[in-house]
Design goal:
Order of helices and strands: EEEEEEEEEEEHHH
Helix content: 10-25%
Number of helices: 3
Catalytic activity: a ribonucleoside 5'-triphosphate + H2O = a ribonucleoside 5'-diphosphate + phosphate + H(+); a ribonucleoside 5'-diphosphate + H2O = a ribonucleoside 5'-phosphate + phosphate + H(+)
Strand order of the largest sheet: 1-2-3-6-7-8-10
Cofactor: Mg(2+)
Mean pLDDT: 96
Keywords: Hydrolase, Magnesium, Metal-binding
Oligomer: single chain
Structural class: alpha+beta
Largest sheet: 7 strands, mixed, barrel
Shape: globular
Radius of gyration: 16 Å
Pfam families: DUF402
Strand content: 35-45%
Number of strands: 11
CATH superfamily: FomD-like
Distance between the termini: 24 Å
Family: Belongs to the Ntdp family.
């Protein structure tokens, strides 16, 4: 398959630092594809957890992955606005199987009014010790939380007012 092209349907695989699978999203449509950035869209896609349980996403989402930043951003389109779920993670890689990244537990939830909360700090600390995250990874992740918060506050990238609307319209063209 090579690097995905716009319109391709891909899987997304999330791993933990120890190499174990964390979560798989069955189908995401590629809306933009470059070496540095992949933007995808999905709606009601099946998600498989590490323990084999499955569930289906409830709303359309636009997903933003970058090859240089240690986070990814999912904008979930709900009736009362766009909610963002941001995973602090490794930059993505893509192989013939899927888009892949390592999930480092810390998450940032952003509400339609652009207020946010940092989630799972306790889980991060537990896994940091259990999986022996190197000090350099810990520093990179904390620096990228700061980058992410500056993007939120500055309404940069996926947080800009028109970003989700633009890419959702593009996603809809693939559904027609």
């Amino acid at each position: 398959m090579g690097f995905p092209k716009e319109g391709d349907k891909i899987q997304i695989h999330s791993y933990k630092h120890n190499g174990s699978i964390h979560r798989i999203w069955e189908e995401t449509t590629v809306l933009r594809s470059s070496e540095n950035c992949i933007i995808g869209g999905n709606d009601r896609t099946t998600v498989t957890e590490a323990d084999g349980r499955t569930w289906i996403t409830r709303e359309p989402a636009i997903c933003y992955f970058h090859a240089k930043y240690w986070f990814n951003i999912i904008g979930m389109i709900r009736t009362d606005g766009v909610y963002y779920y941001c995973n602090i993670s490794s930059p993505f890689v893509f192989d013939d199987e899927a888009l892949k990244y390592i999930d480092y537990d810390l998450d940032v939830k952003v509400f339609p009014d652009m207020t946010y909360i940092i989630l799972d700090e306790d889980e991060y600390e537990r896994h940091r010790k259990e999986m022996n995250y190197p000090g350099v990874i810990d520093r990179i992740l904390k620096k990228n939380v700061s980058y992410l918060i500056s993007w939120i506050c500055g309404r940069k990238g996926p947080f800009s007012p028109e970003f989700i609307d633009r890419w959702y319209e593009q996603f809809l063209t693939y559904l027609r």
